[in-house]
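Translate sequence into structure tokens.
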Amino acid sequence: MLWISHRGESHDAPENTMRAFRLAWERGTDGIELDIRLTADGQVVCVHDADTERVGDKKLVIAEENFEALSQVDVGQGEKIPLLSQVLAEAPAGKIVYIEIKAGAAILSPLREVIKNSPARIEDLYIIDFKNENLKACKKLLPNIKSYLLSGVKVDDQTKKLTPSPDDLLALVEESKAEGFDLSACEKITKEFLTELRVNDAEIAVWTIDDLDLAKFFMRLGVDAITSNRAAYLRQNLEL
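Result follows.
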């Protein structure tokens, strides 16, 4: 099972920064997860929110600013918003990078160019997205990169069943040709639920788990990867 550092080792460093990513690599986790958005001048940057208000010392809207302006924002401990190209240039071979798309289809062509011009190995990269239309388009632009459908999972108040159902999730993946699922870590998920998703050897990751007991629960269920803000801590305490 793989341990993926969510926005880097973001429990101990500002999220989506080079400090958080480098900390993950130094601690030897299996990979990182990061979020990407497109700037006004067409640069692919690593930031989760549509603006910098939550993480930065000033509020700028990512899609409305050039990278030069965004690079002046302090997003914690003196860290700046990095370009995806910078992250991929430093990512060690064999370390996974989950790339979560937080923008619309306009980012896909710039993303392809970043990946094309980076030293990163194709087999180390994964595209993850809640939007099935983006996943479909990515499979055409980047056919050799694995993709996962992101989805929340919860218990429906009326039916008391998990939703979306395995059938609904499988229909989306069949449409997008994604290789797997990245699911929210709902404690009501069962072994049977996951088994139904394993058609065509689909891979299953879960997010975001920082609690040891919850991580143990999903390890017993046999997921392929756990994404955590403190992935190194979980692995150190659970892989004995």
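Note: The chain has a mean pLDDT of 97.
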